[in-house]
Design brief:
The protein is mostly beta strands. It contains 7 helices and 19 strands. This is Phosphohexomutase.
Length: 322
Amino acid sequence: MIKNVYPLQFEPILKERIWGGEKLKTVLGKAVESPTTGESWELSTVEGDVSVVANGALKGSSLMEIIDKAPNEILGTAVYEKFGKQFPLLFKYLDAREDLSIQVHPNDALAKERHNSFGKTEMWYIMQADTDARIIVGFKEKSNANEYVENLKNKTLLSILDDVKVKSGDVFFLETGTVHAIGAGLVVAEIQQTSDITYRIYDFDRVDAQGNGRELHIEQALDAINYDKVDTYKQYDKVVNQSNAVVDCPYFTTNFVPLDGEVSIEKSAETFTVYMCVEGSFELDYNGEKYHYKKGDTVLIPAAIDSFVLNGKASILEIYIS
C-alpha cells in the first residue's frame, strides 16, 4: 500500500542517437551532456528502461514498484482491470537533428506473436519545427509489397512515400503499419503504446564512427506494412481552458488544453492522467500543495487523485485511457 499519492514526476531517461542533437537541452531544459541526445523517455516501463520517481515521498522508487504496491490508486480501476500491473503507455520527447530512419511498427497480433510485446500505435505533437522541416508518413498512393521492394532495392523508396511539411502545433496519429520517419529539425512529443519494437527499413546509408550501418529489418517489415494511403494529420480545436479532443483510440485519449488562468479539474478513479507541458508553465494545486511545471515537463496524476486546480499560461497535452 501507498499511504498518500500525489502528482509524480520521473527522472528523464536520456538516449543518445545517431540522429540526435542538443535541443532537448536548449529548447526543453533537459540535463543533456551529449551533443547527440535524441530522446528523453519521460514515463516508461520498458524492460531495462523503467522510470524512477524524482519528487516527494516516493522519490527513488521505480514506476513498476509503485504500481505493484498500489495498482488501483496509480493506474486506475479500469486500466488495472484491462492491463493488470502493466503501464500501457510510453511518453517521450525527441530531438531530430538529422532525419530518423524510415521505419514501421507491427500491430498487436504480430508483436505478440514475434516479440511477446504490445504493438506500437503512436502520436506526434510537433513542439518546434525548423523552416521546411518535414515528416514521412505512409505512401503517396496505394502501393503493394512488390512495388515497395523494387523501390527499396533501387534506393528510390522516398519517391513513393508521402513527404509532409510541418509546423509547431501539428499533430499526427500513426496507426501500426504506417511507414514513417521524423525529419531533421524537429522537436516532438510522442505518446505511444508501451513497446520498443521498431522495424527499420531504410537509414539513408548512414554509418557510425566505426563505419557500421544500423541493423535493418526488411523481411520482418514486409507483412507489418499497411500499403494503403493513410490520413495521419489530426485537426483539433483550441478553446481556452478546456480539454479539446485530439486523438481518441483504443490505446489512449489525448486532449489539448490551452491554459490561461485557473481551471478546476475533476476526474474519475478509472484511469491515470498524464500532462505533458509543450509550451509555457503552470502550477497544479492539490491537497494544499503546489507543484510547478514548465515546458518539457511530464507529470503522472495517479488515478486516486480526483480533483485539483491548474493555474498558469501553458499549452498542455492531457492523456488518459478511456
